[in-house]
From TrEMBL:
Stretches for region Disordered: 176-203, 336-360
Protein name: MYG1 protein
TM segment ranges: none
InterPro entries: MYG1_exonuclease
Similarity section: Belongs to the MYG1 family.
Length: 360
């Protein structure tokens, strides 16, 4: 095996051959840490070569944090993220052991900060756990229960997921195809097939892997930055609005979200606050201003049954769907499924909510 690294340059080891989303993400996460920022990546299944690597993910048959070995394929492996039941993949292992340090590096939060813990949990739940489930063959729903209920998918979404995109990198043409020499970051592979016999160089396969790793890493960075810059600050805003909701409806069915120029991602926090305070499913509608101006238009949105659902707890009245208000059709807003509408003043918007609550 040839490598461009010097003896003191860390080496991240993973397997060669067909790759998946979990090790693509695991290697990217490690390279966010200062100690591995300039590390090279060696893709091999050769045990002797793996022994020379500083840290190894998704290959080697060992999970040993002190030895910096993070494989999950061994028969007796059962590790899960704290409080979760999904078996970890290499992505989840790296996140469990290094996630807080990664958050601190990217955001400058202290590792001990309570917000770091919030982000650590949230990023796993909303992003990384799906990598773990996908690589371990754990379905989102129980297939036998679906079959028993005669529920069949309406369409195929296998090419829509991150895992589906990563899989395409295994086959899609690469800019490195037919190239010679090491990849840009010094990635090498021991035991590579002879290009003349295989029809494709190992270097080209490594380039595909780097492309996949860059892709999933980009999604991770977007997720973390959004959670840090937008989701985290919104928590306090939504908590205050949730506490004040009975000012507008004595049963607390309407929440008024104050305008913030950076936006307020409110729905996720609403579900959490309802759960924490024993008020699950209570809020039916959210009202929020379109601007900070005194005469701002206000919008009303029906709250979804749960995060990611296309169903509402209580849709807007049928006669308003596809319109904003039947008495004011020139005002912008409204969709056909009863999810959203708009109005000129806050009072009018509240009236819309109240009618929806009582008559929808």
């Amino acid at each position: 095996m040839s490598t461009s690294s010097t003896s003191d340059t860390p080496i991240i080891g993973t397997h060669n051959g067909h790759f998946h989303a979990d090790e693509a993400l695991a290697t990217f996460l490690l390279k966010l840490l200062p100690v591995y920022r300039h590390a090279t990546i060696t893709r091999t299944r050769d045990p002797e070569v793996l022994q020379t690597c500083t840290i190894v993910v998704d290959v080697g048959g060992i999970h040993h944090h002190q030895a910096l070995r993070y494989d999950h394929h061994q028969r007796d492996f059962t590790a899960t993220f704290p409080g979760k039941s999904t078996k970890l993949s290499s992505a989840g292992l790296v996140w469990m052991h290094y996630g807080k340090e990664i958050i601190s590096t990217v955001t400058n939060l202290s590792i001990q900060d309570a917000d770091t813990e919030l982000l650590f949990q949230k990023i796993y739940e909303d992003f990384i756990e799906a990598f773990d489930a996908n690589d371990n063959g754990i379905p989102l729903y129980d297939p036998s229960a679906l079959r028993k209920a005669n529920i069949e998918p309406k369409f195929s979404n296998k090419g829509f997921s991150i895992a589906g995109v990563v899989n395409r990198y295994n086959y899609a043409p690469s800019a490195r195809e037919g190239g010679e020499g090491a990849t840009a970051n010094g990635t090498t592979t021991s035991g590579a097939p002879n290009p003349a016999k295989a029809g494709k160089s190992q270097d080209e396969e490594d380039a595909r892997f780097l492309g996949a790793s860059s892709f999933v890493g980009q999604q991770f960075v977007l997720e973390l930055n959004d959670r840090f810059a937008s989701w985290l600050p919104a928590r306090a805003v939504v908590k205050e609005a949730f506490a004040a909701r009975k000012q507008y409806d004595d049963q607390g069915r309407i929440i008024v979200i104050p305008y913030k120029p950076e936006g307020v991602p409110w729905s996720d926090h609403l579900y959490t606050l309802e759960e924490e305070q024993g008020a699950k499913g209570e809020v039916l509608y959210a009202l929020f201003a379109e601007s900070g101006e005194k005469d701002s238009k206000w919008r009303i949105r029906a709250v979804s049954l749960d995060a990611g659902s296309f169903e509402n707890r209580k849709g807007l009245p049928e006669q308003w769907r596809g319109w904003v208000y039947w008495w004011q059709p020139d005002v912008r807003g409204g969709v056909a499924d009863g999810e959203e509408g708009g109005g000129d003043v806050r009072g009018l918007g509240l009236s819309t909510s109240e009618v929806g609550v009582e008559k929808g």
